[in-house]
Design a protein that fits this description.
Shape: globular
Low-confidence stretches: 221-225
Distance between the termini: 17 Å
CATH architecture: Orthogonal Bundle
Number of strands: 2
Strand content: under 5%
Number of helices: 15
Mean pLDDT: 89
CATH topology: Farnesyl Diphosphate Synthase
Largest sheet: 2 strands, antiparallel
Order of helices and strands: HHHHHEEHHHHHHHHHH
Number of domains: 1
CATH class: Mainly Alpha
Strand order of the largest sheet: 1-2
Structural class: mainly alpha
Oligomer: single chain
CATH superfamily: Farnesyl Diphosphate Synthase
Length: 325
């Protein structure tokens, strides 16, 4: 049976409540406009999966302490900064059903807010000598930027191999979850082996998580609901589509790439691409690969002593690939 996020959160629920207070404090400012906007950002928080990964990883190997809270705040500050900047870059007016910062306060303010959040995260670490945490998280932010740019570059040419696809999603999505797990563990122990194990665990989980997102685009009546085709409209090459193209004739390939390039806003044509991917077994293939990465993540956790936090991490991995949205 699929566990809800609240059930998974049980071993760290008091820490998550405490974290909310500390996270708000980490964004405090004397500038009223800044406080107003950061207050708005805090209100629209999602499921808070990232802090959960930090605390559950930390508690699987040691005792949660002040450094663990700072690790979670650092990740949320830097991640929120990238989201605010992303919305500006994408010219997006909505995030999680709310207006984006740039929709309410314009691009210039949104960019400055992103910079403020970024510097708040850096200072939080530096003021407390958390250099080891800063190193983990700063590397992740650099990789995420590289992943985004790599994806933009490839979307122009649409010449993407599976190898490049995995490089993109590892950098764009998996590195952040890897940083959550590694920073959580690094906040409670200096054991390099444990930190590395949890970093790999986060990477595999992140890759499985992203493939699940790719599958949503194609839809499937049994598990995913209506296909959205958003990735196709944005010319994103995802695993189901890459597999289908690699297993088609030169003519089929040319027809599909032409649609993705030139007719991606025609719903009828987008449906054609979705049907093509289904017929070529692209969804089945991507699902199999997703489960392989899930199993790699769980195999690593098998090396960690049993505890309620470890059980919750296992449930969080399963939740990542069983979620309905």
């Amino acid at each position: 049976m699929e566990k809800t996020v609240d059930q998974i959160k049980a071993p760290i629920s008091s820490q998550m409540d405490e974290f909310e207070i500390k996270f708000k404090q980490s964004m405090k400012s004397n500038v009223p406009l800044l406080d107003k906007i950061t207050g708005y950002i805090v209100k629209r928080k999602g499921k808070q999966i990232r802090p959960m990964f930090v605390f559950l990883s930390a508690q699987s190997v040691g005792q949660i302490n002040d450094s663990s809270y700072r690790a979670a705040s650092l990740i949320e500050l830097l991640h929120t900064a990238t989201l605010v900047h992303d919305d500006v870059v994408d010219d997006s007016n909505e995030r999680r059903g709310f207006f984006s910062v740039n929709a309410l306060w314009k691009n210039k303010i949104a960019v400055l807010i992103g910079d403020f959040l970024l510097s708040s995260g850096l200072l939080l670490s530096l003021d407390n000598d958390d250099f080891h945490l800063l190193k983990i998280v700063s590397n992740a932010v650099r990789e995420m930027s590289e992943g985004e740019l790599l994806q933009i570059e490839k979307a122009r040419k649409l010449d993407i191999s599976e190898e490049v696809y995995f490089e993109i999603i590892t950098k764009k999505t998996a590195t952040l979850i890897a940083a959550c797990c590694a920073a959580g563990v690094a906040s409670v122990t200096n054991d390099k082996g444990q930190i590395a194990l949890f970093k790999d665990f986060g990477t595999y989980t992140g890759i499985a998580f992203q493939i699940k997102d790719d599958l949503f685009d194609f839809g499937d009546d049994t598990s995913i609901g209506k296909p959205t085709g958003i990735d196709i409209k944005e010319k994103k090459m995802t695993l189901p589509l890459i597999f289908a193209l690699n297993n088609s004739t030169w003519l089929e390939k040319r027809r599909i790439i032409n649609i993705v390039k030139n007719h991606n806003d025609d719903p009828k044509k987008v449906s054609e691409v979705i049907q093509f991917v289904v017929d070529k077994g692209g969804l089945k293939y991507a699902e199999d690969v997703m489960h392989q990465y899930k199993n790699k993540a769980l195999d690593l956790l098998a090396k960690v002593p049993d505890s309620p936090s470890k059980q919750s991490l296992i449930q969080l991995v399963n939740y990542s690939i069983e979620r309905k949205k």
